Target: ATP-grasp domain-containing protein
Amino acid sequence: MKLLLLCNHNPKLFGLDKWLDDYRSNEIIILTSSKKERLYSKYEQNINVFLSYVEKWTEEIIAEQAKILYESFSYDRIIALDEFDVYIAAKIRNFLGIEGQSVESARFFRDKYYMTKKVKSFGFPVAHTEKIDNYLDVYNFGRRNGYPFVVKPNLGAGTVDTYIINSEFDIKKLVKYNFQSNQFICQEKLNGNLFHIDVLVNDDYIEYINVSRYLHPTIEYQNNKSSASVTLTEKDVETKVLRCYTEKLIRAIPTYRFSLLHLEVFYDGNEVYFLEIASRLGGGGVHRILNDQYGFDPQEVVIKLEMGEEFSNFPKSKLNDYYGFIMVIPNLGRICSLPSEKEISEYLKENNGLGFQCFTRLGYEYSTIHSSVHSLYEVSFKGDSYQDLVDKLQNFESWVKSRIIYT
Model:
């Protein structure tokens, strides 16, 4: 079996560095950008791994290089690790006649307007959503449906270019966008708690449904709130409700047989409202948390399942431990002092921390915060209760921010 892996990120982000060095079972061709060559070059020592670089990471260039690589390797499968590459991967499969996630499935998981319409047609409550193609459509949506509502890119992710519109005054901030060339949607602002639900599907069987509650909606980064969530257990009443909902949803939508899914819903205690779903592993600390919870790397497992390899160590017992992560939001200004990695590691060791990632450096200047994942650090913890995790996340944020100096 030969696999083409589309990955234009640091391999550590997807855990490739943990297993790819010594991988020997099948052949893997990694297509990435030449800007990432330094990060991937070490895998050239593995005779089962082949590397291909492109100067620019665009759908057209990816498709052309994938076609060239197929002529050399005749690969059997394609996997895109990044949400933004899911659709072009499906188009390449369709062109080459390769088995895998279909174009219809990929479109569903990428096109927020299309997915919302489909989910509504399956009988699930959704936020009222309209596609817009000019600036004045935003005013019209507010006049027809009232305020507040949300404007966001139809093909977006991570709350980039997402805005809460509370009145016509707020619409003026959108004048910088070209609505003709960039697809946007207007969407009813939902109430209730926001949850993310992470799922592994193995040959159409759901191996796990992991429910987590955000401490506040991710769009609150615009009010200087860090994105953070806590994983719920069997003891929490929302767990059963949202697992049941998720299983019904997955059976209705065009889910590929080997999938990692990241679902977001609002739940007000009475009704579950669909927000969006992505065909990928969850971001933030989700990867590290799932790895610790279940004792395996879900990204590694799905890649290997797609290549026909067997894996039987799936979880059978109930989960009783609480986990959580936080993406610490920066202040505006230039970083002139940071805690050392040793200090952070010692803090985590004393407070049952699982690990962290640093996304900043001395001298870096923050002139704006552009999304909920635009952060200084991602840190995850394990704890004894929901409140214990909330305290751990908030205490770390206070501790690390007290040790950062801006100018």
Observations:
- The chain has a mean pLDDT of 94.
